[in-house]
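Repro:
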Amino acid sequence: MAKMIFSFVALLMLTGVARAADLAWSDLSPAEQQILKPFAGRWSQLPPERRERLRQNAGRWQEMTPEQRQRARQGMEQLRQLPPEERERIRAHQQEFRQLPPHEQERIRRQRQWFQQLPEEQKRALQEKWRGLTPRQREEFKEKMRDLTPAQRRQFLSDRDRTHPE
């Protein structure tokens, strides 16, 4: 039975890889083609994984609200204005993120959302503290924070601010 399940999963995976490899421009919907128009001339030269990722991104783009699209455009423009080394560093981090298990990706998304909801003053204070930590202190801090709920994290940071004034 286990062999049969393994074979079935392997077949599904191979089918997905083959589908991505065979993803021709004509296979895209008109809406996807419109979104991916800048890639039309070189679509067939793109690696299959990149074509599949672009198609998935086009699907996400279609589901975005106008406000979300505007924020995404602003983010892309900010990325374009960065030095090449910084863009490469960001891409490497994105690639590392994609390699993480889904539960780890979700944990990171929740932490980012928690941070984004903080008042600007508190965000700046945390960023300054972070910059002042040694690499070892950063790792220790991440370990402490990793398993806390957002409420526990807020409480921890609040207690820490009271006991470690600057």
